[in-house]
Amino acid sequence: MSEAGQRGVPTEFAEQVLDLVARIPAGRVLAYGDVARMLGGGGPRQVGAALARFGAGVPWHRVIHADGTPPPGHEAQARARWREEGTPLTADGSRVRMHAARWAGPQAPS
DNA sequence: CTCTTGACGCCGG
DNA sequence: TCCGGCGCCAAGA
Questions:
Q1: Which is it for the CA torsion A107, A57, A59, A61, positive or negative?
Q2: Which nucleotide is nearest, taking the CA of residue A43 and each C1'?
Q3: Which of A20, A21, A48, A88 has its CA 20 to 30 A from that of A38?
């Protein structure tokens, strides 16, 4: 009841994913594979699965493909948010400049 | 226990 | 630059 869209019970790995994604500063992004590596487990697919099921309460639009493209089924939503937050985008604004927008991690300064 | 699926990533054409 | 195929790992049926 506190959270909507949450199906079933999240695994511990899923909770770690949500926690890290919630810490990503506005205007910055992480790739699914980046999140998996920072948590030190599973793989990019597990991160995507966690966000697909429990990502309703976190800025999931800050987690994208390694090449800077948004997740299927939410391209328009993600692009709109990037524009709002001033995320570094390509000239056409269709994808994120990973090299510039990639968040260093929870320890790195903003 | 086995098979299929999936908000991915990388390489080759 | 775009498209397709293969590899990885865990959850679900």
A1: positive
A2: C9
A3: A88
